[in-house]
Design brief:
Radius of gyration: 14 Å
CATH topology: Arc Repressor Mutant, subunit A
Strand content: 5-15%
Distance between the termini: 36 Å
Structural class: mainly alpha
Number of domains: 1
Number of helices: 3
Order of helices and strands: HHHEE
Shape: globular
Strand order of the largest sheet: 1-2
CATH class: Mainly Alpha
Number of strands: 2
Largest sheet: 2 strands, antiparallel
Helix content: 40-55%
CATH architecture: Orthogonal Bundle
């Protein structure tokens, strides 16, 4: 998988988790066009980065348990020559 596709996946996951609109795991995987196992692998990777992601059985959605999120950006660094 290319880096740009992986970043796009993380951003889409972040967006749905932040909205608490993931649905149950099978629905979340379907929304992302991923297998269930790939979804769980990616969630585990996000958690290993220090993001506290939990699942609510009541809401049937993943959510962020605190204020930490993954933000990916590309910035231009001006070099002084």
């Amino acid at each position: 998988m290319s880096l740009s596709k992986y970043i796009a996946r993380l951003q889409r996951m972040d967006y749905l988790i932040a909205l608490k609109a993931t649905g149950p795991p099978d629905d979340f995987a379907c929304k992302l066009q991923l297998s269930r196992s790939t979804l769980f692998e990616t969630l585990q990777e996000m958690k290993s980065m220090g993001v506290d992601i939990r699942y609510s059985n009541t809401r049937e959605s993943y959510y962020y348990a605190d204020e930490r999120r993954i933000i990916i950006r590309i910035e231009r660094i001006n070099e002084k020559r």
